[in-house]
């Protein structure tokens, strides 16, 4: 949510900042801006709209200088216009600042600052920070920043530069991710490693409470008492190619089509065929800890929450441990019960979602062991958890999550196998059967992806609809939720996911010949029940698109379209049934002319609550 990039070194800053912003644009895209030290002062250029627009502005009105900061915004306070775009400056125009997060007491601080004579030019919460630094005591920028942040409530990842200290950027972090890029005679700051990857693979992930001071020659990390801190330098594990579109028109389609490989990568090195077991060393759970688990609590948001619902089926079925799945945003504000033997699992693609992070902290407060199922290596959730399972799905740029979902489901299935075998609840033969099922999964994904031409035809027929219903049962009920979410977020068609049998308790009233109903009915023990639910839809004139599997009978007497995924163990089926739904949402959105990778009002990685 919002992207930050900064550069200090021997090269011109503006082109490097623009390149970084272009890579971060998936995090927010309503306005963009840069501030560069130009020798005598700090010059800003900013405007509403995309980074392309900023590049045009800079070609007409260049800013020269080798130290600068930049931002791409997802508006929280104040509409997305030229004025509210970051960077923000103080009264004297000497301090420029970019910020991710929310200053929760901005109104109080603003009133006080205005009373003291400060003039505000924007409606943002961020501007108070520039004025607070202007007023703060201190000789150096870092001293002033530390003092300025004392009264600030809320979250921030921020970068500041000051006319009085040429060639210096100061950074602070609380609740919003910031990392430093370490180059040779040059240094970078960014909210996401993708912004600096073109220049360095060495990064320092800042911790909450850190202040960092960057110059061309080096960097220092300080705590709030200005005491120097040691922070490890990590390597970024993926390469620039992973950030390129390649032959695809959109990142979303690229990421859908990558799933054969991403599922393979989540499984890589984790299957033990002879033992019928999984290797999950990163969990950091001793055999004794595994034995003591009485209950699993999953916290997540959005698509990751849907993966958690699939995971509940897998974990309960395989390991026999009861599982609760909670929206992170709801769990964190309820009374959290202290249930002995709880293993809490935070699922997050980005590893930065504010609600999931806070829910993880709340669960830890109840004495639970906490693990993460996370894609982004080095992210806050990954680092705060006691252990976890990395997805290794590579960067997900498309704002609508796709490949992360299938990898999350695979990771939870692996965890189910691991706990079941570790606790002696599964025989070795059953373990071996499951390992064999995992081994063939990437090829089954490849076969499910071959449905694309058929899905595209279906999409063309339904692109004009205003509503859609998605029905599924058991482990495929969460897939119905996920299919509906994908459709609404990128095509703006209203869609609902429902447990198929619940339909007759209300939503059936909506069904008529204008209502497409997507029914997820692979081969499993509830298949005949879902077919009965389809009969109910059909009897009311609904138009059915069935996601079924090879080996299931012909449904043409009931449905208008049948999309057949390969047959597999029912617990694994969500990994396959979700693929035609991802493709359906994608092709409907394209047919409607929607901006698939930058859906309106959304941003990747929701780091505000
Ligand atoms: C939907 C989507 C969101 C995210 C949610 C959680 O396509 O992408 O619903 O799943 O914001 O994000 P992470 O997984 O990064 O915690």
Number of helices: 18
Could you describe the largest sheet, including whether it forms a barrel? Answer: 8 strands, antiparallel
The total strand number stands at: 27
What gross morphology would you assign? Answer: globular
SSE class: alpha/beta
Distance between the termini: 11 Å
Biggest sheet: strands side by side, in what order? 3-2-4-1-10-9-11-15
Uncertain regions: pLDDT < 50 for 5+ in a row?
Answer: none
Radius of gyration: 25 Å
Listed once per kind, the bound small molecules are: fructose -6-phosphate
Beta-strand proportion: 15-25%
Binned, the helix content reads 25-40%
Summarize the structure.
The chain has 609 residues and is α/β, with parallel strands linked by helices.
Description:
With 609 residues, the protein is α/β, with parallel strands linked by helices. 34% of the residues lie in helices and 22% in strands. The strands form five sheets. The chain has an eight-stranded antiparallel β-sheet, with helices on one face. Strands 5-6-7-8-12-13-14 form a seven-stranded antiparallel β-sheet, covered by helices on one side. Strands 19-18-20-21-22 form a five-stranded parallel β-sheet, with helices on both faces. Helix 1 packs antiparallel against helix 2 (51-60), helix 15 crosses helix 18 (574-591) and helix 16 (477-491) runs parallel beside helix 18 (574-591). The radius of gyration is 25 Å and the shape is globular. The termini are close together. The mean pLDDT is 94. The structure holds fructose -6-phosphate. Fructose -6-phosphate binds at residues 301-304, 348-350, 353, 356, 400-401, 485, 489, 605-606.
